[in-house]
Amino acid sequence: MEWTNDAAIRKWAAMPEAVLDQMEPEGDFCRRHLLNASLLRLLGQLDGVRVLDAGCGHGYLSRMLADRGAEVVGVEPAQALYDYAAKKEASQPRGIRYVQADLCDLPDLGGPFDAVVSNMVLAAIPDWSTAMRACVESLAPGGVFVFSINHPCFEQLAPTWRQHGEYRIREYLREYPIEQTHAPDFHRTLSTYLNELTRFGCRLRELDEPGLDPAAASPSDGTEAYVELPNFLLVAAERR
User: Fold this and answer.
1) Which domain holds residue 212?
2) Pair 103, 125: CB distance under 8 Å
3) Which residues face 51 on adjacent strands?
4) Of 37, 94, 119, 209, which has the maximum CB count within 10 A?
5) Where would I find the Methyltransferase type domain in this sequence (predicted)?
6) In the chain, how many domains are there?
7) What is the DSSP code (8-state) at residue 210?
8) Alpha helix segments (H runs only) across 68-206
């Protein structure tokens, strides 16, 4: 199957509301223990900062950013995720504006942003390069772009660790889909993402490969692997 953005969006649009409820209020295990603190640190001070949450999903990160004083616009194409985020804003207003749109075809969002964050999104988009360009072009000069992805060198870390007691990989240099519970991710090399980022006129600020606190790890579910190896890569860059 040749994946398109529309096909991937349809998969995400079918995510059950009960699954989204389980990720409240601060995301799943990996987001709570590995991603959130790093994302917030890389974004820096948020009070009064205008932030685009690019591919905001069900909106948990948008709500965290707004609670820290950011002026947030969240963009999400998948119907079920967008509806969940909008419903949360209607019942617990934080001043977040949610927009249903493909990142590759953004509408007018009201001028440039001080920061753009894309949390576990780019690796799920077939036309990821166009989406990355849109994120960068949404920034004011000097603005920061922060994104997170599954670490291209250590994808499917927990299941291979459970099976072998170590990490194993057979293919790295080609692009291919990785089947997930609800919709696929796509493997791409680390250099693919970073080279495209610089091609779009960004200056790399920092890479982060967070490790798990051993107290939060469990041998039974493979999370002990996250103590030894990084399952996620976070990138902070500045638009020139």
Assistant:
1) 5-239
2) yes
3) 72, 115
4) 119
5) 52-147
6) 1
7) -
8) 79-91, 128-137, 157-164, 190-199
